[in-house]
């Protein structure tokens, strides 16, 4: 082929300058180079599934004619080749924004600035809803490619898989390729139906190794590929069904962990396994069935075929980790609390009882940090990244065990504290999982002692007009974790509960909502018994459960602070699988967390679940957290005498936090008359330290 | 540590010369070096499972005092350190041959010659029973190692698996290690029961990659590790349970392929899959269940726990390959006969329905050569190695399809020929699988026309004294593949059958054993109806089935000879899953194979099964055959007009093979009177070509 080339003013006139935005990457390419090719040569993040065949439209670009001045480039009107028939066909069939071009069709004919819109970036970033400003950059382990495969030749026999592997190597640098029986089964019909053009979903571990064929479709596949991020807690299981191409959560669901019937907290489940031969396998089967059912129901909710779920990421504490994997957790119940394995695992999801999703789907578990500090803590570390913080940050992820991280870019410590399931609404008389109908917010008027609340599934407060009608179908069914924290803190602030945690009677508190219950009192929030509904109260037992839980949480945090030799932290991040984000104010009123400026306390929602999603969407995140957990210093609460000491000293509920005027403004603290002062004293002791 | 070193006559007197036999490897090592350490440094093949801890005794050696003259080395009586307490304890407990030492205990104190007996060689060679002199050098993918693992430390938490991986890396250079859920489940109890000393079975693919933990035992495991070599034929399935440490076959078993009910030959099974939606999955389930049951029964026969089976190698034709893997074989029924995959596969055995063996067991299938030339042909190539032959060798492996290889070290051709199941005793009126009670050898007296025979399970001939008693329990139940070949050939030689394949009546043949059956005749071999047993005959239909089968076989061989442009081969190897080795004489009388000197025709038994065993015992064999199959030139019989031509011309049964006087001596050929000469003519035409 003859190619003419001439120089004008020191420039090679057979080449053109191309600048891509927003990356700013630039370079000179031969005239006639397709934009997609130029993008690849210059390392610009421009997506393509069909490999430049003009059928997938993932490589849409906007010639940035308006940008030239900024970049000092003169863009001629004919800097790109003319709109062509392939583009017109695509636009007629599926529509395309005016001004857009297909990067594989438009050829560079002169100096040009080309904008890659976010949806055309393969590694596009997804804004998280959470307070933290970090984003998820998409780089999943599972990728979709369109390839054209050579047809079989009887005289040079070779397998269809081998020709597919050749095509993937030549067209996408995907090499080598392996396949399991389920994918192999679909291979031959797909190739023939697609007339030797197929879309394949292939997976590669972040540790390298071969690419694995997960699924195959005839022609260009335009449906979705999904992953499931699972936060497998002792009490609740949450699943986020996530689009693997753009990171969107398309459905979320949760259920109670059915293992609760073997014991409410982890140690009672370990005991069950020790006392009952086969008890661990029974618990394994139970949790796997629950996950399988949850997977199915989330798929139904999203309206997708569950076989399109190709990846699962699971985070959980060490006991759940072992029980889910089918390992007897007995060693986790006694010193030295040895994990069977602390590494991350990449396994066939099918081997762990996930039968409704794609039979070739892969499952990844984050690494565990120590015998009591699990993959859930690793996920929180991934989500909240204390190791990247300049400030000294305390991250508490509240569940049946609280995962607690303290540190900054110099050093990170971690421990786990057995708070029990009260913060998840379990072991609470009117408690329930965070689900529609559950009270998730609550306020008590300090004057009238009357409550108002919000339930999950309704945006109105209970004293707003129309609340009764709006919740007629939902009902008001109980109190979830965030609701009980607010309820107890509000009761304390309204003087219904004293510093030692005792609920006053009607004559002490001045409200008929304080009703006798046995030898103690309960506070009535909502009574729907006349309509056949529940009567929702906070009992003295509920207050005790919350006191135990918050003391454990506080003690764990203090232990890490002792270990680091600090008496204050710069900021606090509260996370957990609550109904709503936990309220900083109420957490501090309860004494869940050490003293800190209130505006330095933030809520991160379900940080473990977010960590699972990060790992699902980005393989570099997997590699990163695997490195990081090795650097985290673990503190074992179970054998640390100071933990008990902190725990005992932390049971009271503070009434004012002197160093912080912004809190004092919020907290008004009438004393109930039966308060003996012991609880207050404990509170003072703690604050004075 | 201070080390004294001085030189005498140019030699460093702190070192000694050690020579290992039979390898002849030699070198100088520091005085005090254990023999095992010296062996490793010099690359001598000396086994050890316990890594030099004096507990496994695998490293036994014989100080070769008698050898010194030959090697010119003066061996002092104290060339090895004194017999020590560890050796004495081992000898007392388990016994050890006099003169033997433990290589890990005996230290080299002076120049010495050390013999490594065969049983102490890790890659010891196993003599095969087959005629071929090649041996199997043991080098299995699965290995056993004893390791001492560091105990957990609460203050530096790490998983038990991670510490096991560290130990395997440091003590055995096994790195990296991965583990599935079933092995992980056994890890913690084994480590504690073994007081942190465990034996592990680990597997590594011949393509490299990580080591996989398959199983684990507390302390030094002294039981067996087993593999299963499976020849999965269209009609019969044969399994050889093999000791992975020494290659011994400890049990063998076979069953009929239950897929026969979907069609006797491969093409009828492909048709079944095409005509019946879900038919392929039905056949897949059937064959997997059969393999699972066979695996179990072979384990019972050997008296081993099936969970000790850690590896399975499967060889089969392409249709069985696809059906076993769960792939619809429909593409194999039509040109261009595209395989879903032609590569070897390494998969979890559990994923293919093998549920009774170790849940972490691995399964390897040999590569397929072409759409009609499968992993069974690859196994025959591995076993008989035509590519290493200087002679031009024709290898025929007779089954329901015959796998045919022709070539030498320059070039190898392969094809498959649809012989039908007659050679396996199926579609034969009194036919049966090669099992106890089946007639496997048969002779007919040319004068009296009386038969004598042997059955599987009894060493006596039927006319030997005591035969009736010896077979009373067995019974004489039918004729297996090798028996029917001998029966038809003997009938031809005794003049009971003419050259066209017609059985004469009693008046023509002069024996009352030729009995009328419909419009044709049958030859009576054995009548046990009086005792309630079967009446075993060879019918005219049986002769026709054998004629069709042998014509197909012959035509396939001729096709390859045409392709190579030769009219003669130097030698012929006959293989197949017969009852006994196929008789060269009878095969040639039948015209199964092209003319060849009778002493150049040998029997190789079940060559495909042997190839499977080779692949099971030696990972280099897997790599080797994967390379080799890519070089084999494939010839497609189904689309080759000359195949039909050869087939039609080959139906007659020759009566004398002139060029070979040694055959003429054997074959006496009285003509039966109804012979019209047509068959003879065909036979002559064929030979004259």
Oligomer: homodimer
Structure classification of chain A = alpha/beta
The biggest sheet of chain A amounts to:
6 strands, mixed
Shape of chain A: elongated
Biggest interface reads: A-B, 48 and 48 residues
Can you count the beta strands of chain A? 33
Average pLDDT of chain A works out at 86
Strand order of the largest sheet of chain A: 18-17-16-19-21-20
Head-to-tail CA distance between termini of chain A: 84 Å
Strand content of chain A: 15-25%
Percent helix among the residues of chain A? 25-40%
Given as residue ranges, the uncertain stretches of chain A (5+ residues, pLDDT < 50) are: 1-8, 127-133, 656-689
The count of domains of chain A is: 5
Radius of gyration of chain A: 29 Å
Quick structural summary:
The structure is a homodimer. With about 700 residues, the first copy, chain A, is of the alpha/beta class. In chain A, strand 25 (about 440-445) and strand 26 form a beta hairpin.
Describe this structure in words.
Two copies of one chain form a homodimer. Chain A has a six-stranded mixed β-sheet with strand order 18-17-16-19-21-20, sandwiched between helices. In chain A, strands 32-31-22-23-24-33 form a six-stranded mixed β-sheet, with helices on both faces. In chain A, strands 4-3-9-6-7 form a five-stranded mixed β-sheet, covered by helices on one side. The first copy, chain A, is elongated and about 90 Å long. The first copy, chain A, is 29% helix and 24% strand. Chain A is an alpha/beta fold and 689 residues long. Chains A and B meet through helix 4 and helix 5 of A and helix 4 and helix 5 of B.
